[in-house]
Specification:
Layout: H1 11-27, H2 32-50, H3 55-65, H4 69-84, E1 93-99, E2 115-120, E3 125-127, H5 128-143
Antiparallel strand pairs: 1-2, 2-3
Helix pairs in contact: 1-2, 1-5, 2-4, 2-5, 4-5
């Protein structure tokens, strides 16, 4: 139980906060503010969950994360890069961008839509929306 976060005391409370942040992001998928808020909350979700687990349960959680570990790494780098402005470790992210398309994000990606993108060192472009969805769904499944 946390004594520094008012009525957010358990990991389920932190997940409820994450869910609110995710739903806020979905209302405007091109909002850097909402993407950053989600990223910071999502990154710290792991700490909240692990604080309530035994060592054996932590190991199980780590195994469950493997299929989406790249998304967890991206969220960590976005959260830390935002909080500290500069990362003190090597990231797989080259940069991020807010691509302003001719169409709103309500259209499919087949159109020139506005998106928040993560450009990886490998040259791959990843949509922040996809990362957020994967992370949210991971924790949603965890708590259900």
């Amino acid at each position: 139980m946390s004594t520094f976060s008012f009525d957010i005391a358990e990991s389920k409370d932190w997940f409820d906060k994450l869910e609110r942040e995710y739903n806020d992001f979905l209302k405007d998928k091109t909002s850097s503010d909402r993407a950053i808020n989600f990223s910071i909350t999502a990154h710290h979700m792991n700490e909240w969950a692990k604080s309530e687990l035994t060592e054996k349960e932590k190991a199980k959680l780590a195994l469950k994360r493997k299929p989406v570990q790249n998304d967890f790494n991206i969220i960590q780098d976005l959260a830390n890069g935002t909080k500290h402005k500069v990362l003190k470790y090597e990231s797989t992210i080259k940069t991020t961008e807010h691509s302003r398309g001719a169409f709103s994000s309500g259209f499919s990606r087949g159109f020139n839509i506005s998106t928040l993108n993560i450009l990886m060192n490998s040259g791959e472009k990843i949509y922040f929306e996809d990362v957020a969805k994967n992370i949210y769904n991971f924790w949603k499944d965890y708590f259900n």
